[in-house]
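Protein 1 of 2
SEQ + STRUCT:
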Amino acid sequence: MQCLRDISREVCQDRITLFLHTGICCAAAIITNSPPWLLASYPEGNLFQLTQEEIQILLAREGREKLFHQGITLAGTKCLLIRDNLYTKGNNTIDLRTKDQSRSSQAVTVIQIESVYLVLMGQKGTEGGLLNLNAFEMARYIRKAIHQHRANF
């Protein structure tokens, strides 16, 4: 399988595995919205359980204001929407926080990379800002791999 013909699944999977060894994230996934699909994920995290319906709701362009009021479920975990700039030119991110009964919620970041989206869930205690910085670093790597892949064809 390929990540929308832009980058091989192996590149996606390899980068997710390398990135998770930094200790900042506990789960990562690469998804697409046409069709809503999980392209790659870290098998030890819970984001491999993302459903097509969850992906569709997360990436829908219409009705995004409902996400602020209702939140969203990702891989069965209820999340609160903190900031939604996914379809804002130049930013293309969503910041979420898991809604946990205990006080140990986790930061979640979604960032658009070309025609795919990176979803990262931070370790408990990891701040959203640090997670975002690492998401942008990983996105830069994947973007570079996409451009290199395109240059070879």
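Protein 2 of 2
SEQ + STRUCT:
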Amino acid sequence: MKVKADRDESSPYGVMLAAQDVSTRCKLGINALHIKLWATGGNKTKPPGPDAQSAFRALARSDMKIGRIEDVTPIPTDSTHQKSERRGRRL
């Protein structure tokens, strides 16, 4: 746990601290990375959010070589619809 408040765990600052910790642990033998980016996807939102960019920047600043960034977000292949309120007339 890098930040003290729960609301800061998913913030770009918390992700940046976690990425810096990962890079210091990987200094022993790993100097290059291939990154797979996974967002919510499906019938929900596709973009990964601001946290991913801050994590990539923190890894690049810590002298880790980033080889490939691959987006593995699931894409729906059928006609699914978002979960929403009930349809039809309600009394």
